[in-house]
Every structure is written in C-alpha cells, then in structure tokens.
Amino acid sequence: MLRSCQRSVPHPDMNSSRTKPARFATDHRRFKVGLTAALAMAIAASPALYGADATTRADLRFTSFAFAHEFGSGLYDFNGRTLQVYGLPFGWTAVEPGEDQTGLRLRLPVTVGFLDFRAADVIETGLPDRVDSVSFVPGVEFAFVVAERWRLLPYLQAGLSAASEPDVETDLLGAGIRAERAFVAGEFEGLYAGAATYSHVAYHGGSLPDDDFLRLRNSLELKRPAGFSLGDHPIEYGLFATIDVFVDPPTGPTTGIDVPRTQLETGVVFGARPEWRVWKIPLPRVGLSYRFAGDLSAVRFILGAPF
Q: For a designed S-S bond to 284, which of 4, 152, 234, 243 qualifies (C-beta 3.0 to 4.6 A apart)?
C-alpha cells in the first residue's frame, strides 16, 4: 500500500467547503498564493542548482546516490550530468496501532534514477529508455501509542542499490526512531515529527570505502482544505518545513565531508480526502520542495508523505 494522506486528525470544515461560496473564494485565493510562492521558490533556486560546480569523480558524484533511499526524490547536477531520482514509498500496514496494541508496518521503499534526464524531457523525447540506478531497502516499523496524539515509531531496514556506473553498487543498512504528534492550530491540521536515523553504505568492489551518517530531524506540516474539489474528492494542501542536523554526516569516500551538517527543506504537498484509489490502492500525495544543502541542494518532487 502506498503511504499517503496519513496521520491526520478530523477537520470540522472538511465537508462543508462546498456550501460556503464566500469561504470558497477566500480559501481559493489563499491556495493560489501558497502555490505561487512554492513555485517561485523552486524557480528562483533553479539557476543555483543547474549552475553548481561539481567534480566528475565517481566517489563524489554518487555520494548522494548511495543514500537516495534516505534523501528522497531529487534532482542533482554533477558537472553537467543530471541524476533524477524518484522515491516510491511502497509499504503495507499489517497491524494498526492502538492504546493496547503495537502497530506493525512493512516498509518497502524503492528509488529509481535517470542520468541526464529531466521531467520536462518527457514532452519532447518521451520516457527514458533505461534506468541508471535503483535501490530497494525493505524493513519493519513498529508503532506505539505512548500518550494522547503521540506515537513512537522505531524501525530497522536493509537492502541494496545498483547503478549503471561501475563500483557504486552497495549494500544498505538503516535503523531509526521517530516520535510524532498530531494537533490542530486554528484552521490547520498539524503534524510534528522528531526523528533520529542511522544509515550505513557498504560499496561493492573494494575501490570505495564504506560510509554512514547519523541524522537528527525535526519536521512540521500544516495542512488544510484548498477550498475546491475534483469530482467527489475535496483537495487539501500542506505546507511543511524540515531541519536536518547531521551529527555524523556522509562523506565523499576519499575527499572528506561533502554534505553540510545542517540542511533545510521547505515545500508544499497536495492530496485529496477521501484519497483516490486505483484497484483499492490509495494514491499518494504529490508536491514540490527545495532542499538547501550546499552542493547537494536540489528541487525535490514528492510522492507520499513529505517527511
């Protein structure tokens, strides 16, 4: 099951937006302002993204690729070559958490990457004819209800990645714990999440040393109805921000630290409530964000939860 539109609390205005035309106009204007601001942010950041200097050495070019399952979808420039990575947040909830019941979820995330490809190329040349990178890192996640609106989610995962470039295939291992709280702030539904994540990469071939990182993350999302519907599905949008602090940042295997210790990401995601389903599978939310991360700064296309 795709992970989308989750961890929300009921909103009293969700089903009443159609019956209030004046409110609809106000909400629609707010929606357009938020969307315009998000797109302007991404466009303004694009020159820095595509004009960034970078080395062509494999150990630097694929430092971020090795951790793509943690960094998420993004667009990266490597001295004129672009690696477009998409994260597919597959998963399945086997047991729902409750006050007297531990929840269990299977994490089945997949990433795919394409060199020298941008989403706009689909219009002119169609889809790329090959996948240049792929990773699959399955795991298990437990969910404990520890207090009113508070949940604790530890997890463990292990998998592998492969790429068309030599010497960058990897074994991947990760573990972490996350605490989250849902709340209401005026007209917004909020979600706060704090997490600690450890991730380890072991390169095949012996030409590159292993790498790892320890990350502390604080995230906040504010979500509300957009004021209009598509069919029978009211649309909602969420504004979010994430601050990452790397206690032990990942490195270029031979050249030292290449990832800033502190990173910021902000963006907007859109979804429907009730969510759309295809063959009983819920479709994920979609969105756009920009990650401020030095040489690894990138526009990120979001599928599913933003953090």
A: 4
3-state secondary structure the chain: CECCCCCCCCCCCCCCHHHCHHHHHHHHHHHHHHHHHHHHHHHHHHHHHHCCCCCCCHHHHCHHHHCHHHHCCEEEEECCEEEEEEEEEEEEEEECCECCECEEEEEEEEEEEEECCCCCHHHHHCCCCCCCEEEECCEEEEEEEEECCEEEEEEEEEEEEEECCCCCCEEEEEEEEEEEEEEEECCEEEEEEEEEEEEEEEECCCCCCCEEEEEEEEEEEEEEEEEEEECCEEEEEEEEEEEEEEEECCEECCCEECCCCEEEEEEEEEEECCCCEECCEECCCEEEEEEECHHHCEEEEEECCCC
Contact 69, 87 (CB under 8 A): yes
CATH architecture of the domain with residue range 17-303: Beta Barrel (2.40)
pLDDT lower than 50: segments of the chain? 1-27, 31, 34-35, 37-63, 77-80, 253-257
Give the domain ranges of the chain: 17-303
pLDDT in tens, 231-271: 889 999 999 999 999 988 876 544 444 568 899 999 999 99
pLDDT at 130: 82
